[in-house]
Amino acid sequence: MFQAPPSPYLVDPETFSVATSPTAPPRDADSGKSAKKQLVETVERLSDLQRILFAHDSHAVLLVFQAMDAAGKDSTIRAVFSGVNPAGCQVFSFKQPSKEELDHDFLWRTACRLPERGRIGIFNRSYYEEVLVVRVHPNWIGAQRIPGATVGAATVSEDFWQQRFESIRDHERHLARNGTVILKFWLNVSREEQRQRFISRLDEPEKNWKFAAGDMSEREHWDDYLQAYEEALRATSRPWAPWYAVPADDKPFMRLSVADLVVRALESLHLRYPTPSDEDRAHFAELRTALEAEGAG
To answer: Average pLDDT for residues 10-20, to the nearest whole number?
Structure first.
């Protein structure tokens, strides 16, 4: 079974703490132009590996991105996967669930979008919303009409959340056993950096569309979200489905870090282009002879 690539940002379920998780890169880290140049080279390598993944057709890759608003999920996905063949890569964004989605269990809507073998699937937000935003706003559980779970923070027991963590762990373990490589990224942005990015969205007309009034109201729950993230990451980071808490205050560094982890995960599979059998090679030779004869005729 797939094992998590090592990284200083790999979440250890025993020791991880949001309070000590950095939002900025190390002082000696590559950033700015240097990181952007390295990203180009890393994306080229990723493109090569994606073609082999597609040809090999034995594994799927699921990449989960979670973050506070303005952390850079969209731009990171765009920057890292800009060079990947669109036929081998699928991106799905999950926002407020529809009525149909609410009529199913909380894993259903994402399970319908899991990547096929040979493809990279990217979740921009995911089933983790059910233990993050829903945990911060437990009154939303009422719309899910779950037997035994009633509306309001006081009536949602701790067991309810632990059961959801268990369901997620079981779900991811099942996927991993069946050949899905899972990497999960929490883009860890600081409150101050989020403030600056919100101001930028308000000041620059081409970014106004990104800003919503709800962004400010959610910012008021900052501490609650961090607590929910810490518990969720600790409860669900496993060697076969690791979480990485990637510093997000510096976008070039963040994008390079994500790209490097995806490349190293794919390299660890040691995949190669399929090798034709002797029978196939003999058939290829016959076909080549026929094509040459057709050209000469």
So the answer is: 98
Ranges of beta strands (E only) in the chain are 60-67, 89-93, 120-124, 180-188, 243-247
- The closest alpha carbon to 154, from 138, 168, 170, belongs to 138
Phi, then psi, of 63 in degrees rounded to 5: -115, 125
Q: How far apart are CA 22 and CA 293, in angstroms?
A: 66
Element (H, E) at 41: helix 32-56
Phi, psi of 223 (to 5 degrees): -65, -40
- Spell out a b/e string for 178-217, using b for 16 or more CB atoms within 10 Å of the CB, else e: eebbbbbbbbbbbeebbeebbeebeeeeeeeebbeeebee
The span from the CA of 282 to the CA of 263, in Å, is: 35
Q: Which residue has the tokens 């080229």?
A: 44
Give the pLDDT confidence of 120-133 residue by residue, as tens digits: 999 999 999 999 99
pLDDT tens column, 92-103: 999 999 999 999
Angle (CA) 234 239 242, round 5°: 55
Q: What is the largest CA-CA distance in the chain?
A: 83
> pLDDT grade, residue 52 (50/70/90)?
very high
Residues 6 or more apart from 186 whose CB is under 8 A from it?
11, 66, 67, 229, 233, 243, 244, 245, 246
CA dist 85 and 74 (Å) reads 18
pLDDT (average), residues 183-212: 92
256 within 8 A of 38, measured Cβ to Cβ = yes
Q: How many helices (H) and strands (E) does the chain have?
A: 11, 5
Q: What is the pLDDT of residues 200-252, one digit of tens each?
A: 999 988 888 887 878 889 999 999 999 999 999 999 999 999 999 999 999 99
Does this model's pTM top 0.90? My answer is: yes
